[in-house]
Amino acid sequence: MIRPCEERSDDLKPNLPPLREVIAAHGLSASKALGQNFLLDEQLLARIAAIPGDLADRAVLEIGPGPGGLTRALLRAGARVTAVEMDRRCLPALAELAQAFPGKLRVIEGDALKIDHAALMGEPYAVVANLPYNVGTALFTGWLSGAAWPPAWTSLTLMFQQEVAQRIVAAPGSAAYGRLAVLAQWRARPRLAMKVHRSAFTPPPKVMSAVVHVEPAEMPAGVAARVLEKVTEAAFGQRRKMLRQSLKALPGAIAALDTLDIDSQRRAETLSVAEFVGIARVLTA
């Protein structure tokens, strides 16, 4: 049995059973179809919850909480958590956690890809999540896109497959550098916060994982986000080709290269984020 927190003392925490017992009690198992892998190491989960800084009374959005391992770490850190979960099997375990932290956990059943997160939260919020592998990149690019900036989220602390994490923080010229790096870096500051060994998960995935922390940065002046997205989509859509080939279908792009004195024989992976921003600025104008 989970005992609720006592409202008068921030030092008192509910008596939570081990996560393995919670999973066993509710007959839960990670769903491959939903991209689930459960983290059970509570010290590791506490370290992840600490990455965005002090969460006391801060609004936090968590996607795919599963049985609530990271959720309990966020609640213990003092956060007010909204958790979006589409796996109905996990809802009873999350309901117990909500009872243990009265007024601190709101559980939404649904598909995070179909929910307006800013409208759901209604205030500035941090995102902290062990993202399901099958929707992680789609959610991430959704948070990064859009004309409105700064965004409603104050930071993103997200678990990815290590390969995806490396693509987000990659530098120009590296094998991992591509469209995801440009979209993540042109108006935000991503960093690789920690690596997580596959053995930490139940069941262990075939790949290593890593946590990326992203904070919004100042948006470059004179650049439309949609234009930059089109430029990177065209450039990296044919990354083995020279820019004169990959960008020729984008009106004005080749002329923009000339304006900026960028050699059209270069390939997309050799351009810096600033150079992509420059191209987008010319096309925006």
Features:
285 residues; single chain; seven-stranded mixed beta sheet; Helicase, Ruva Protein, domain 3; alpha/beta; Rossmann fold; 2 domains; elongated
How far is it from the N-terminal to the C-terminal residue, by CA?
A: 62 Å
**Can you summarize the main beta sheet?**
7 strands, mixed
Q: Going across the major beta sheet, what is the strand order?
A: 4-3-2-5-6-9-7
Q: What is the structural class?
A: alpha/beta
Task: Outline the secondary-structure elements.
Blueprint: H1 19-25, E1 38-39, H2 42-50, E2 59-63, H3 69-76, E3 80-85, H4 91-100, E4 105-109, H5 117-121, E5 125-130, H6 136-144, E6 153-161, H7 162-169, H8 179-185, E7 188-196, E8 201-202, E9 209-216, H9 225-237, H10 243-246, H11 253-259, H12 273-284
Parallel strand pairs: 2-3, 2-5, 3-4, 5-6
Antiparallel strand pairs: 1-8, 6-9, 7-9
Helix pairs in contact: 2-3, 9-12
